[in-house]
Amino acid sequence: MKLDLDALEALDAVIREGGLAPAARRLNKVQSAVSYQLRRLETQLGVSLLDRSAYRIRLTPAGEALLAEGRRVLAQAEQVEALARQFVQGWEPRLTVILDGILPLEPVLAALKTMADERIPTRIQVKVEFLKGVQYRFEKDAADLMIVKDYEAHPYLRAEALPEITCILCVAPGHPLADRRGVSLLELQEQVELSVQDSSEQGGDQHMFGGERVFYLSGFVAKRQALLMGLGFGWMPA
Question: Over 123-163, what HEC string results?
């Protein structure tokens, strides 16, 4: 490339400081070195950047346009260097998290906000899965972290227990089962059961009741809405 970042920085310093001498002091260089950088930059780009005819150095029209773009280039170069420093400090370039859709999303979003506020460079992808699909997706995508309700132990994974979550079998107030006491398995099987669909090859919810009429929904937001409409019964987190 013909572009010299040091020369762009020298051009920016000359304009900001108002002359070669103060720019040289700011850059901790001799004045002749700064002058050489500027002339070399003009030669490389093939345009005149500075009007040296007056007492005070001014930008030519081409110099104004090029310096405006050059400052953006310098800012991006600083961001690249800052990003590299953060990776040297141990931050991962990417992080993939698989989240069980039955778990609350707020703590995950709070963690993401903290990382955003701290300007962490890691690119984070959060995927929501359900049931056996959580661990299936974790393994299939070679993800870094999963937050899962039903974990199947694996010798190569390190597990950390989180607070327990309580699930309740729910129906809407107007559902035929709402006022019943001691509902039998047969009575449950006669009603529509609501569940969520996972993406695992084995699939299926271990806690279903075996009825013929089952509606599989895309997630717990849709399942909650279906429950409130009296469409059927199903498990929901407390």
Answer: EEEEEEECCCHHHHHHHHCCCCEEECCCCCCCCCCCCCCCC
Angle at 126 between CA 123 and CA 127, to 5 degrees: 140
For 97, left (φ over 0), alpha (ψ -120 to 50), or beta? Answer: beta
**What are the pLDDT digits (tens) for 146-161?**
999 888 888 888 889 8
pTM of the entire structure? 0.55
- Residue 18's CATH number: 1.10.10.10
Q: What is the mean pLDDT of residues 31-47?
A: 88
Counting the structural domains of the chain, the total is: 3
Last residue of a domain, one of 59, 86, 113: 86
Place of tokens 């013929």: 212
Distances (CA, A) of 227 to 3, 41, 178: 63, 70, 12
The structure tokens listed for 5 are 């970042």
CA distances from 204 to 15, 113, 166, 212, 236 (A): 68, 34, 20, 14, 16
CA distance 75 to 106: 34
